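Sequence in, structure out. Go.
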Amino acid sequence: MADKYTRKQFQAQNPDDGACLQAVLQRRYGKAEACPNCGIVGKLTRIEGRRAFACKAGCHIYPCAGTIFEHSPTPLTDWFYAIYLMTATRNGVSAKELERQLGVTYKCAWRMGHQLRDLMAARAKAQHPGPLSGHVEVDEAYIGGKLKGRRGKGAYLKNKTIVLGMVERKGAFRGKIIPDESRFSTLPVIVENVAKGTTVSTDTHYGTQALKSLGYKHGAVNHWANEWKRGVHHTNTIEGFWSHLKRGISSTHISVSKKHLQRYVNEFAFRYNNREAPAEMFHRMLRQISTPITGTPSRSDS
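Output:
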């Protein structure tokens, strides 16, 4: 399997809107020799000036229907290049960069970015539908700016959003925003995403101390005592993910709002989960286009 997908390869495969539309058609219906609507055998013919094909019997096939492309006037070549940029870069692409690269408005670039992040989340769920198992590390991260001025009890959380993360060693990552640090917020997310009987490694955070009573093989390391490993237990894998996420947000996006942070977590999770096949990320995104995307983002907040 190739370990990279270069810009030259991308442009050779997707030179114009016609080639992109053909790629969407094949992803949705395969290399079928019959019309997907009426079943009549024969080559589908592109309808000039429209994102549609026609069969011999006159049926019209709209490959973009039900996808993020359906109501978008943005050329498919721009959409495909945005997908390429978001899968080929390690830290993602900001809306300002998409605006510059594609020559579209900031509003359009912002919307495209979030729709692609939703597509990444859907693809990640399709790739790893079941609960995590084996050996899973669980940890929380605090994303947000530093608080200025006077501080008091719990002040470190006032400008932060808490993300609970779970990563299967040599496997997939999942992250979810939680409202607070309590076990009432952390434990239901872990139970939903990690199979019972799994070995779970955490730090000594009080929100995860009841895992043994819930049927998990739980071990913890005490970071406050400079303990970073205890037997098979450590949280180095998930700490590495948090480091990458925080650096990516601060360097590429500068800051993100709490309202949309989940989308960015999903984006970084998708790239992490496909790290062993970077050349396939673009094509795996295209495979997901047949799934309708709901919850189209509003420009009211960034």
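Check: The longest strand covers residues 135-143. The longest helix spans residues 106-127.
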